[in-house]
Amino acid sequence: MTNHEFETKLLHQPQFRDKQTGAVNVPLYYSSTYHQESIDEFGQFDYSRSGNPTRQALEEAIAELEGGSRGFAFASGMAAISSAFMLLSAGDHVLVSKDVYGGAFRVITEVLTQFGIDHTFIDMTDMDETARNVRPNTKVIYIETPSNPCLNITDIEGVAKIAKANGCLTFVDNTFMTPLLQKPLDLGADLVLHSATKFLSGHSDVVAGLAVAKDEALGKRMAFIQNSCGTILGVQDCWLLLRGMKTLSVRLKQSSESAREIAQYLHHHPAIEEVYYPGFSFHAGYPIHKRQATGAGAVVSFRLASKNCARIFVNRMKIPVFAVSLGAVESILSYPATMSHAAMPVVEREKRGITDGLLRLSVGLEHVDDLLADIKQALVAVQQSRPVIHR
Ligand SMILES: *Cc1c(COP(=O)(O)O)cnc(C)c1O
């Protein structure tokens, strides 16, 4: 489109302005169907499952922001992810990073298997392991980076190269970064997926998914699936998402800055066993993350000594909502073991470092000093309940 900077593109795209009235927000086209002029000439739209002007504005916006050829809006992040997997056929195989989002794990292990689509979970931070596990029938390599909740970093460019050499597609779940901080399509990925429920919408008020295909051919196949399966996002939610996305840059930059301060504080606190944060220079994936993303994001995970410590911490925290989800204006504290990763069997969960003492904090827009004070007092309560760990 234009060569404007990302922040400007969030606000100004041609489809945002209503051609007829000049309205600066995309109208809500609450219409399931469209009048056609004659038997011989159909207009651009015919039925809203196949296309709707409000949804189209959103789909064009995300395609522009991710640098792809075509965007798609889905009823949820999982609708986007599972629709993408509909590109596969019985007998195909997917290679998946082992610490994917719990819902993706469930679709891969319990739904795709019903259709004869096989999978292997691997440590995708390891390029040799990745290359070694590609099979002749592998069609997709599925990446989540930083991963949820332990924030491991996968080299998108490296994996995409392995995928291309083997005729596979590369899918990247870019929920934690958004295109503000990471552009997987520029790094060689074929399809970007989002739970737009998180940072893109940003206000804990909508459940939505987005996908962007790099090239036209894949875009065509995704459009066919979106229309065939009918996994579309409703008009009002498209509008809410368009509205939320306008402030993505200021929200995510501010939250990321606070997250950095909080991560550093937690790192130096004796009651914390480990902090997972890709902005630490000593994080194993730091050099790769620095190369492929422009920020560490607003999510910090950390491990307390036990479930009881986590319980005390959660009970004492006053500011964040204690809830499933992330990426909102309000800070959200989650307990992955029974929230985001409840769908994962205990053994699998623990193998991935999602232990009973692990908590995840998605930092919002509160004043960071208030958040730090809140964390500090909650950790005092944790420490009073158990002996201090000396490191
Ligand atoms: C939340 C989430 C999803 C699922 O999205 P929904 O909108 O809840 O369906 C997928 N991937 C990641 C990384 C998520 O955080």
TrEMBL record:
<dbReference type="GO" id="GO:0047804">
    <property type="term" value="F:cysteine-S-conjugate beta-lyase activity"/>
</dbReference>
<dbReference type="InterPro" id="IPR015424">
    <property type="entry name" value="PyrdxlP-dep_Trfase"/>
</dbReference>
<dbReference type="InterPro" id="IPR000277">
    <property type="entry name" value="Cys/Met-Metab_PyrdxlP-dep_enz"/>
</dbReference>
<dbReference type="InterPro" id="IPR015422">
    <property type="entry name" value="PyrdxlP-dep_Trfase_small"/>
</dbReference>
<comment type="similarity">
    <text>Belongs to the trans-sulfuration enzymes family.</text>
</comment>
<keyword id="KW-0486">Methionine biosynthesis</keyword>
<dbReference type="InterPro" id="IPR015421">
    <property type="entry name" value="PyrdxlP-dep_Trfase_major"/>
</dbReference>
<dbReference type="Pfam" id="PF01053">
    <property type="entry name" value="Cys_Met_Meta_PP"/>
</dbReference>
<dbReference type="InterPro" id="IPR054542">
    <property type="entry name" value="Cys_met_metab_PP"/>
</dbReference>
<keyword id="KW-0663">Pyridoxal phosphate</keyword>
<keyword id="KW-0028">Amino-acid biosynthesis</keyword>
<protein>
    <recommendedName>
        <fullName>cysteine-S-conjugate beta-lyase</fullName>
        <ecNumber>4.4.1.13</ecNumber>
    </recommendedName>
</protein>
<keyword id="KW-0456">Lyase</keyword>
